[in-house]
Amino acid sequence: MDNTIFGLTMLVVGMGGTLASLFFITLVICALTAFFPVRPGKEEEKK
Amino acid sequence: MSDAILAALGALFEGVRFLFTHGGPNVIMIAVACAMFWLAIAKGVEPLLLLPIAFGCLLVNLPLSEVMAQGGVLKTLYDFGIGNELFPLLIFVGIGSMTDFSPLLANPKLLLFGAAGQLGIFITLLLALALGFSKEEAVSVAAIGACDGPTVIFVSNMFAGMGKIPTAMVGALAVAAYSYMALVPVIQPPIMRLLTTRKERAVKMPSPKGKVSRAALIAFPIIVTAITGIIAPQGLPLMGMIMLGNFMKVSGVVPRLANASENEIANVATLFLGLAIGGTMAGPQFLTRETLMVFGLGLVAIIIDTVGGLLLGKIWYLLSGGKVNPLVGAAGISAYPMAARLVQNEGQRWNKHNYLLMHAMGANTGGQIGSVMAAAIMLSLLKGLGVI
Q1: Smallest Cα–Cα separation from B58: which of B30, B95, B88, B17?
Q2: Which residues of chain B are within 8 Å of residue A32 when distances are taken between CB atoms?
Q3: How many Cβ atoms are within 10 Å of A2's Cβ, its own excluded?
């Protein structure tokens, strides 16, 4: 494969894949924190 | 008798003779080792890694040294833990144990900064190809943009093992990666100021409140490992080991294993890895035009990483109506926790009441995941394209 095509493929698919993967993990974490929500800290509980 | 004494004395001074006849590159590399000693001891630049690397460099460059010959101590260490990529992975278990993903779980969107902070990897890959590096060399050089020493060593050594890149290049890449990680406090602030306005830098972000549930902290490493394994199986050893370390820590049931990973195992692996990498820095093989280009491209990679994170931060600032401080984007690299601290310092410099640390820590741990994910995806793409 030509180096330019290889580089551009890696840029588009690699960067795009990284973004898409992390976006997907972000969604999964959002779902996770919906099941196990962030609990108020001790100071907030006192209030 | 006198002939025997002369022959014996000649053997003793063989090293000196070598130094004066063929030792130019070795002398230069011994000077480089001394410079690394100075940086590690006097300036505190990544001493844990630079000190053993410099000592390995010194050992291999002393005249007629056989430490990297078959059976030599550094060659044995190299074959034992670098040749099969064991040491970088053991260090990753330790890094996982040391990392706290709570700020990221409290604000999951920060993970996207960890993706933007990998832009340098892919742009540098293009530049390296344009400069004439082979595909495997370009990928190895680009990995410096991961801002993560073990990732660089893992990727480059894989190619060295296949005979696709010279072994000496692994040393150059490792030293460049660790040097630039240490230089992040010098590299990032000018770019932060250049790309953001005073008003943007002064934006206050409220600190996340509350405590992340233990169940979420325990499920997180398992989920990330599973997703990486499905999307980019070639990078599973990297992500798997970092998440194993974190899993042991957050589970709370194996404190001895978590402590050992964080301390003894990581320390021993760091020492052996540093020495073995230093051993690849033999003058005649190391002092090449490519080594200089590796250092230049490494710097470019980290600059572009920072630019990528800041640009996403600026977009986010606009989309949120000025509620997100774009500086947080600069923490989306893997230099943990240095990049987060820099963002905190820079934010407070422009607004004394600004506490960006928790947001920056979230982006920074996102950068750790992002760098490993980018490397994993790159390796899987290479497999898919038939390069490896």
Answers
A1: B30
A2: 105, 216, 219-220, 223
A3: 9
- Alpha-carbon distance of B140 to B154, in angstroms, equals 9
Q: Report which of B81, B38, B29 is spatially closest to residue B56, judged by C-alpha positions.
A: B29
CA distance B102 to B106: 6
Nearest CA distance, A46 vs chain B (angstrom): 12
Give the nearest chain A residue to B126 (CA atoms).
A7
Query: Hey, CA dihedral for B289, B18, B78, B245, is it positive or negative?
Result: negative
Per DSSP (E only), the strands in B231-336 are none
* B358, B340 Cβ separation under 8 angstroms: no
Over 60: is that where the pLDDT of A46 sits? no
For chain B, which residues score pLDDT lower than 50? none
DSSP-derived 3-state class of residue B211: strand
B248-285 confidence digits (pLDDT tens): 999 999 999 999 999 999 999 999 999 998 998 888 88
From B111's Cα to the closest Cα of chain A, the distance in A is 6
Residue listed under structure tokens 């630079």: B50
Q: Is it the case that residue A45 has pLDDT exceeding 60?
A: no
- State the pLDDT at residue A40: 74
How far does CA B190 lie from the centroid of its chain?
21
Interface contact B126-A33, CB threshold 8 A? no
